[in-house]
């Protein structure tokens, strides 16, 4: 795991089972958990913004539910188990302007499907049938996609100034790698806030959007559930089984071998999130190995990082949803690209434990070479 330590102080196997199980499961709220809270924002924030705009969602409902589910997941797992927007579903919504009722129906459909796979034990069979090299290949492929997205789209987003900003952020990552006193993510976020305050934030508009707003309850119609199942849930299902369930289970086993949840537990909370989300305007969500790698890479070791992260979205949804467009400016895309790059490299580095077995390594890399 040496290369991952270089990029975040952080994806060693923290490994020897802790003598004090209660201490291992204790939720912490310190500077490193705060830094870890930003480990997945490079993936989440653009998808949240894109889906809210494309589907015409109520911003308060989307943010409040996203934040609340982060908090509940942190309390449930007591490790940096992330909550992320469903990527394939989000891509379809953004590309084809899928309406919010169909999005809600698709979220409920994927929740019911995952619940059925969980309670029947089918997801356990899938977990046993898919070998570790295949899971490592899924993680490597996702890491490669995130790295290419960071370097190909996020970093160049602001032209020359964006390259300078990204280079500065990356140097901070290298310089502060492994620093538990001044975690790299906090320095990057501070740099972004300073840059935004000087060049892009409209504080008048930000202050003008302050006010309490609550999610708007809704009940998905049967026709929207059926349409959402065909249009959104079915394309999402393979990615969910591969990354959200199997790869997340594998990574949690790598990082927390004494308390890693089962594939059934992960699929069950995945299902519950999407059985609740559609009724309050939330974006369909999942767990994910990339998010866990990001939280861990920047310092998160307990559920505290996920709870802190969720708290930001909960507060933003309740009190700042009308000025969410201004809040997003506080996280310049080039710096989100740096965070995303570290997350991608952390996932790709997991392939190291297969390098001694050429056959397993070939199995993991074959999908990326075809």
Q: How much helix, percentage-wise, in residues?
A: 55-70%
Total domain modules: 1
| Average pLDDT score | 91
Counting DSSP E segments of at least 2 residues, the number of strands comes to 2
Which regions are unreliable across 5 or more consecutive residues at pLDDT < 50?
1-19
Give the strand content: under 5%
User: What's the helix count?
Assistant: 19
Strand arrangement in the largest pleated sheet: 1-2
Q: Biggest sheet: strands, sense, closure?
A: 2 strands, antiparallel
C-alpha termini separation? 26 Å
- Secondary structure class reads mainly alpha
Gyration radius from CA atoms, angstroms: 20 Å
Please write the string of helix (H) and strand (E) elements: HHHHHEHHHHHHHHHEHHHHH
Gross morphology is globular
Task: Write structural notes for this entry.
This protein is globular. 52% of the residues are buried. It has helices at residues 2-8, 21-24, 31-36, 41-55, 59-77, 87-96, 100-119, 122-129, 132-154, 159-175, 184-199, 203-208, 222-255, 263-276, 289-297, 304-319, 324-328, 333-349, 358-369; strands at residues 84-85, 285-286. The chain starts with a helix and ends with a helix. It is 70% helix and 1% strand. It has one domain (26-369). Helix 4 (41-55) packs parallel to helix 6 (87-96), helix 9 (132-154) packs across helix 13 and helix 9 (132-154) runs antiparallel to helix 18 (333-349). The protein has 370 residues and is an all-alpha fold. It has a two-stranded antiparallel sheet with strand order 1-2. It contains 19 helices and two strands.
